[in-house]
Write a structure and sequence with these properties.
heterotrimer; A alpha+beta; B alpha/beta; C alpha+beta; A: alpha+beta; Glutaredoxin; 2 domains; C: Ubiquitin-like (UB roll)
Chain lengths: ~160, ~600, ~250
Amino acid sequence: MKIDNSIDYNQLSNILNKYKQEKRFTLAILQDIQTEFNYIPKEAVFHLAEYLNIPVSEIYSMATFYKALSLTPKGKHIIKVCNGTACHIRGSNILIDEIKDLLKIKPGETTADGLFSLEIVNCLGACALAPVMVIDNKYYGAMTKEKIMEVINEYKEAAYD
Amino acid sequence: MIKENRKILVCCGTGCLANNSYDVYTQFLEKLKNTNIEVIPQVKATGCNGLCEKGPVVKILPDEISYFKVKAKDVDEIVLKTILKGEIIDRLLYFDLNDKKRIVSHKDANFYKHQHKIALRNIGEIDPKDIDDYKKRDGYKALHKALFEMTPDEVISQIEDSHLRGRGGAGFPTGNKWRTCSNYNNNPKYVVCNGDEGDPGAFMDRSIMEGDPNTVIEGMIICGYAINSNNGFLYIRDEYQLARKNMQIAIDSAKEHGFLGKNILGSGFDFELEIVRGGGAFVCGESSALMASIEGNVGEPRAKYIRSVEKGLWDKPTVLNNVETWANIPPIIINGAEWFKEIGTAKNSGTKVFSLVGKVKNTGLVEIPMGTTLRELVFDIGGGIIKNRPFKAVQTGGPSGGCIPAEHLDISLDFDSLGNIGSMMGSGGVIVLDDTTCMVDLARYYMEFLSEESCGKCTTCREGINTMLNILNNIILGKGKLEDIELLESLSETIREASLCGLGKTAPNPVMTTLKYFKNEYMDHIINKKCPAGVCKNLTSYSIDKEECIGCGACAKKCPTSAIIGEPKKPHIIEQDKCIKCGSCFSVCPTGAVKIGGALIESYNK
Amino acid sequence: MKVIINSKEYQGLPGETLMELAKRNNVDIPNLCHKDGIEGQGRCRLCMVEVREGKKTKIVSSCVYPIRDGLEVVTNSEKIIAIRKNIILLLLLKTPNNDYIKSLAEEYGVKAPDRYVDYKVKENCILCGLCVKACEKMGTSAISLINRGTTKKVSTPYDDPSKDCIGCGACAEVCPTNAITMTDKNRIRTIWNKEFKLVKCSVCGKTFTTDEALQFIESKLGKKEERICDSCRKKIISEKFKESFKYF
């Protein structure tokens, strides 16, 4: 894995300075880093370990345990397809296959142009609208194969205009 | 038709927001500003009304008119007709599919009529961001009563007397928990809210946190007073952004109003509350993993031979309850234990919120007295199965629960009855299944879910679930053998007995209950190489019954691979080598001529 | 504190776990993730036993179960044996080529169904977590359990050579299944993708630890240590001991 020397340490310090140097803030800080950088850069892991005075291995354990955190950069838009039970029995698998086809990526991956990441999530709590898909923070309910193409194209057009 | 105190309530829960209810809300504000009207109605963005599927929901008070599926472009008409002239717009009313009629007030709809709201009492009625709305509906009255009219001991006694049981799953008596914790003098103690709702198919906690955050806060402060704790944590699931936002706003305004912080309402009691954002791990809904996560560790559970009321967060005495439980506390304090016990059954007092989802006509959140039957829930409130297909089973309690077949439709929905038949209440997700759901696939689905969500700490859960998943995958692919059933049963038993935490111990439930009630489906998969529901592609084939086919061509039109041929008004046939088994023909056929067969049907035909 | 294990009475000490009591009295409870001096983890689940609670019995993991007065324990009931066998089966499916797990399977007469074993799997780690605990006890915490669920494994951060690792080998020593590769060759030790210079014992001349490990201990103790291996150190102590008792 390449070493990220490119991260902005000011940005990182701004995040760290919001929190006291207490272990209990590890997850909160990692969440903020994820939001700010779109992933958890390697340098940030080492830096955080030093800031909180806990072993690097422990921070690394956290960063690999929690699904909300990613060690590789995520796409500009994150597509979350719900595969909760209600969505599953209303055909979420068909949606997942369609997106895999359209974007040529598997769940957990990011498109080559960095525009989309695909994630499968377990229940977004919008079961009444099953099957549900969320892009960034916008919910798309009662999704069909046909609607997916439309929605994804909207994002593509917005990006390449 | 100008009414004083008129209110327009626009539902802005996650479900309705997904259908652009915020646009409806802003459109109302805009339109009313530019309308010549004497008394401008108040417009409120409220929490979830429950019937998310028919959203956005708009309620007009005090007229009691409810409109469903409202779009921003409908707003002009609503203001002109309903607000100014008092006319009802028929097309926006709730349409009862079974009674075939439109209903003016949602309160008369079957979906709402049977409900009894305690935990959800304010949701959809107030603006969750406005603490005054909450106060107007008896908000923080319970806190006031507890602090100034009751001793901590009396508060605990009242909760004990109410027989309130934890709404998060196991149904442990809440008062009991508080009492034990209050008896330990190892300070500081902690009060924790489990808002890590992760059971797929359950979203009551999300709705409460989004729609009535203050009730959770009030419940927690009262507990803090009762057990002598000054610190609380709200652990909220990572995916629930709106819940976190509304909760934070509520905490801030509670502080401003003196309900939180130092010397609450001048009583001398201090209580601080902090939100902790989850990291996206189902296992953190397990109490010891949740506490590990708050402490800043990986969310691995620990053995609970010493309970968290004695050694919980940072090894200090801790009371942990789930969101719905907290929401029940203020009404119990205000109305008393006797009032609460009159609702529900003897050992299961009060109500329970269920999220009714799946193949049911009315999906959404439902709060009903404990002891209501499953039949009432699915058929009276839920309106029955979509397209009136046959009811097959419900899955309750998420991945830790089990399925309940039609023979138990008259079971009373309470902790004990559900436990007795091998399922569990869990957080209250009720997923309705019809004849097109394959029970083997459903069991496989839950095993896959759990194998992804297992923290991996103990052997039985990590390796055991994964092995069961491999076996089920084999069965679904048509490679199952009879001895697989024995292995599944034996592993289930070991995982149940030997796993470290509740997640692992209950993980085999979906397999155990489907094996108990639907063993014939497993046998069909293994011996006959057939999936009766037509879900497992390797074990499914479709064919058209020549006698029943009327040659309408609907199937041929729908078929994505043009595998169906036939002349108009003559029986059609499916070319098996082109068929991808999507089932479109089956669902579109008006006469039921398309038949589901097993993997071998092709050779029978030839 | 009286505890009855398999109908025999034992005297328990306050704060003891069932496993500690059993070990102290040479009562055999099979386990993979327990070591003296390391607190019970409850990971491997092999130490499940049956305890009586009123009229009911309950199955608990002895390495984390706190004893109490009057506790009745059965370590080898039919139920327990069945659980143990299934756990060994699960471990065998995970590490089908590991000698230790294979011998356990043989001892218990466990055979894995061929259709579910992949003999190509080279895995030896059963995720007992002892190595991580040993590393933590050393004060280095160079390795940890990463990922979750079936993808869980033990590693240094990013699988890189860790600056915290001192090559002491405590992890390899404590491992029940020999899953950690440590090679000492030409005065070089290789472990966790990192190379260390080995130090020779000033008495016997054999290599016994790494430079980094010595420095780490010296910095902890705040003084220089003599470069003497464990067995020579023991010899010297016993010599001194004999010397001092010569005149009695």
